[in-house]
Amino acid sequence: MTKLLHSTCLLICISGVIGLAAAAAGHPGCKTRCGDVDIPFLFGIGDDCAIHKGFRLECNATKGTSNPKPFLGNFEVTKISMEDGKVWVKAYMSTQCYDQSTGGMSYNDASANLIGSSFWLSYTDNKVTVIGCQTLAYMTTDSYVIGCSSACDNKVNKLTPKNGSCSGAGCCQANVPKSIQYYQGYFNEGYNTTKIWMSSPCSYMAVMETASFNFSTSYLTSSVFYDTYKGVVPVVYDWAIITSKTCEEARRNKTSYACISNNSQCIDNLTNAQGYRCKCSNGYEGNPYIKDGCKDIDECLNNATYPCKGICTNTLGNFTCSCSPGSYMMNGDCMPKKKLRFDSVPVVVVSSN
């Protein structure tokens, strides 16, 4: 059997990650949005708009569309979270399909290379997802081989694929390890659909966001899975500033320390054991990477999150909840004070003459 192999590699090219951008304190004139995606600083579009080149994005219109989209290297970016330190991108899936013209299998093994960048596969948000009726596929890295097998033979294995279920019957998933910056998709050639291609022509392997996936049995008998995602699936990356390994080290270099807003704090990147991120202190919100970017939260405007059944008074970084005169606080409620009652008591006056 001839193996037709096509490799799709997504690469983030990083250069100059050590030096911070010259205009790292607010970036007047820089775009803050590309198409439908907000671009908060430390990310930036074009030259000198990101904290350093590792967070530089390009805002380009893709072929056949007029609406521009942000790209991080070759990855299309769909969302950025400053608070959680995550970025959502689209990455290629790996495919294994029967080729009628050759009578063999055609493979497209996708890969991603983030080595040297500020990004890692999120091990909490992604899984290795394999779809197929006779499929064994892996995500291979420098240190790991992570994968699983899926089958549809309900006579031998009593496996019946069901919508919404991904536990080995037509679909399986495996956890992503921590600190992964490179992977290559791979199919075991001993498991393929040569003999069942009329009912199940293709198999798929994708490293993708767990919350975005819901298995459908139609994925086994048609190209619905590929067509739904147009060959690219949502993936979540963790990010951190890697100019310093820890917050302690970062604070020693005042010129490159990124947490420049008042009322901000530094967080070590414990998930991937390298770098740091910034966050606004409790009671503040905004962007800790720009001057005065962390603003006081007016808790009194959000009673659902900060309940107060009395008189709410906002303070810097906090709030107080008090009761009006004549009442007192008990279990979060203002209770009226009980008036003291003085009952009539007979008074006996004794006099002695």
From TrEMBL:
Residues 296-335 form the EGF-like calcium-binding domain. Residues 1-23 form the signal peptide. It is found in: Membrane. InterPro entries: EGF, EGF-like_Ca-bd_dom, EGF_Ca-bd_CS, WAK_GUB. Gene3D superfamilies: Laminin. Residues 246-295, 299-335 form the EGF-like domain. It comes from the Eukaryota. Coiled coil: none annotated. GO terms for molecular function: calcium ion binding; polysaccharide binding. This is EGF-like domain-containing protein. The lineage of its organism: Eukaryota, Viridiplantae, Streptophyta, Embryophyta, Tracheophyta.
